[in-house]
């Protein structure tokens, strides 16, 4: 796992910050795509000031060589490779290696990594019994997070990463087991027996087998289904410092192990403003379909009701069409066509998109479809139940979380500890209970 990329090509540049009681010169850092940042690491110690950036929209929390996004132009690249090329030519396992190791794998590397994934697909018997402790209606995201964390109890040898081979082994275990845990959670939630992984199947086919096979009745995924799921996982594999990845890095910065850190990532992803949005989109489209509300009226409501959002639209970084949404829109069309599925939700989604892209409210705020707008429709076509949508996102995002955790580990990054602007009471004194 080598080092690439330059940083600070114009390392001499400085910004001057004028303060009410003085000024300070701050170094300017320049990334390999000319993104500029003001380095404020000495600001507090030299001036007493901190910066305030609610939601971190202007804060670079790390230096990273993994993923590049240009939100204004709608560009996404993993390790320099455009997402469009990877989506068309690559497979998820290859992309996982690319993200974690930094380079596309050679044939022998890909083969041995795939074998490592196959060897590590099964869960320890002790771990399997943990599923019995969950209620039948437990949410699969809760089970996923809990079970990933529990994995650390069964693989203590991976709690201290020593070298690259150790990291690759831990990565393979996690990537492989997360798929088994997800499928077992689903089987548990529908009261069906678990289906063990099949050593002859590819990554995605094996997952679909564990989800949908019955005892003595093997589910063989059609090629179109396998391709669509592989694409979906590939498109979700990383997205630089989003909420869940930042969570993984933050937890990892305390020295927490890979399992604990990625389990926290699953929890962050669960929220409807993040990975949970794919489910929220489908629920929204279903409600529109069932209620028969005219789309124009629905869009007006979204614009005026502060508690309502057009789910699957808008993004903190993309102020243009999310390139993943563009790919998924075409995939949704092709998939439904090949499977002969008529899904009214796809037509509603496309109609909404057409209308809002010409609406001033959305134009002014630069709100475009994000990755979640079409992914739920694709997952429904693959027969993935709604409560598993965000779980699939988590399986896809795992390589990115691992890559970020590992990068930070190699950088020997400092523990993450933001400051705050305290807005509470100044000192006050304790009042005994009987005097309050
Ligand atoms: N529908 C309607 N209005 C919206 C939407 C939306 N989906 N998103 C943003 N806006 C409006 C806000 O109301 C706000 O308007 P105002 O300036 O009049 O107050 C303005 O656009 C800016 O919105 P913020 O919330 O400040 O934007 P932020 O960058 O913080 O939020 C987010 C980004 C959370 C993704 C937001 O666009 C949203 O809630 N989208 C819907 C949920 C969603 O699809 N999430 C998935 C994101 S992709 C991912 O995580 C994988």
Give the tags.
disordered N terminus, binds acetyl coenzyme *A, single chain, 18 helices, three-stranded antiparallel sheet, 436 residues, mainly alpha
What's the SSE blueprint?
Elements: E1 14-19, E2 22-30, E3 36-38, H1 43-47, E4 67-70, E5 75-78, E6 81-82, H2 83-89, H3 92-101, H4 107-119, H5 125-130, H6 140-154, H7 164-189, H8 203-212, H9 223-236, H10 243-252, H11 258-270, H12 277-291, H13 295-304, H14 323-339, H15 344-356, H16 360-364, H17 372-381, H18 389-411
Antiparallel strand pairs: 1-2, 2-3, 4-5, 5-6
Helix pairs in contact: 3-18, 4-7, 6-7, 6-11, 7-8, 7-18, 9-14, 9-18, 10-11, 10-18, 11-18, 12-15, 12-17, 14-17
Describe it for me?
51% of the residues lie in helices and 6% in strands. By secondary structure, it is mainly alpha-helical. A three-stranded antiparallel beta sheet has the order 1-2-3. Strands 4-5-6 form a three-stranded antiparallel beta sheet. A hairpin with a 4-residue loop joins strand 4 (67-70) and strand 5. It is globular. The structure holds acetyl coenzyme *A (ACO). Residues 55, 273-275, 277, 302, 309-316, 365, 367, 370-372 line the site of acetyl coenzyme *A.
